[in-house]
Specification:
20% helix
Length: 133
């Protein structure tokens, strides 16, 4: 018998952050510029304006915001380039030519993967601190 509390648990290996990060998807049919709906160390979820076949290979360029430096107060970004595969592509009801797409990172360096994980965790740790107050 399945415990109802266990069935509601997150089954993903890596936590996801619902945040909008600019991305460029480079595909044989042309480039798509959009932003993430959520991101994790293992992939992204976003809305695009054309159907992408499941298992289609894409080059992905992300601009991950980095923390502001204390000296200048300016924030910087880190460009991450990797390859990914479309896992799921679903039509958005009521919106013409809009699809929600899940993309799994395939060819990404450990360093870039770590930067994404650090970015995601920096927000999630902040949420945990707020919830403890």
């Amino acid at each position: 018998m399945v415990n109802p509390q266990q069935s509601n648990r997150e089954r993903r290996e890596h936590p996801r952050l619902q945040n909008n990060i600019p991305i460029k998807l480079i595909h044989d049919d042309g480039d798509i510029v959009t932003e993430t709906a959520n991101i994790s160390r293992s992939g992204i979820y976003c809305k695009v304006n054309k159907f992408l076949n499941p298992m289609a290979k894409l080059k992905i360029n992300l601009l991950i915001p980095l923390r502001k430096t204390t000296k200048t107060g300016k924030s910087t970004t880190r460009k991450i380039s990797c390859m990914g595969a479309v896992v799921r592509s679903e039509s958005v009801g009521g919106i013409e030519e809009a699809y929600n797409v899940a993309i799994f990172f395939q060819d990404i360096s450990k360093r870039d993967s770590d930067h994404i994980a650090d970015y995601v965790n920096s927000f999630l740790e902040g949420d945990d601190k707020k919830n403890q107050v």
